Amino acid sequence: MTINANAELYRLIYWAGNVIFFYVIPPFLLIKFVFKENFAAYGLSLKGAFKDYKVYAIMLCVMIPLVLFFSRTESFQARYPFYDMKEGESVYPNLLIWEVVYFIQFFALEFFFRGFMLHGTKQQFGYYSVFVMTIPYCMIHFGKPLPETIAAIVAGIVLGTLSLKSRSIWLGVAIHFSVAITMDVCSLWQKGLL
Q1: Residue 90 and residue 173: Cα distance in Å, rounded?
Q2: What are 173-184's pLDDT values in tens digits?
Q3: pLDDT band at 16, cuts 50/70/90?
């Protein structure tokens, strides 16, 4: 029995596809057909999306040194990148394909938590909708390295507050993916695969 050389990529695309589907399609259907509201009301508007870009830039500047530090630890080395490159394997095409899919998965994640869940509950809970969203957001990080799970609480509160203020998820998508791809690159570098 031969193992497909792309089995790892297919497995990850299957996982990401499920995340993307369930974080995007049911909320889209609810917004469109049940709530009969505009998607922009759930963080998809570009209007005002870049208003707080300086705060996001500061967050990224804080996160990069932390990512550099933690990428050297055993727990992060065992976890990242999700796509397990083999010794001598080229970055192109599989890792690049995975990173594109990974980006779409981060859009889905940000839309579900900082868009649908946050903006969908702000009428009932006001600012507390940030904490309502942060609890399940933190829970999806259970099983990951402890510093990442703790950071998810801080990120949930900060990104949630910024999304509530700007009414947009787009800079959250950008920072989330920027941190993730930096972790992937640093982990690969530490493993000697780049």
Answers
A1: 27
A2: 999 999 999 999
A3: very high
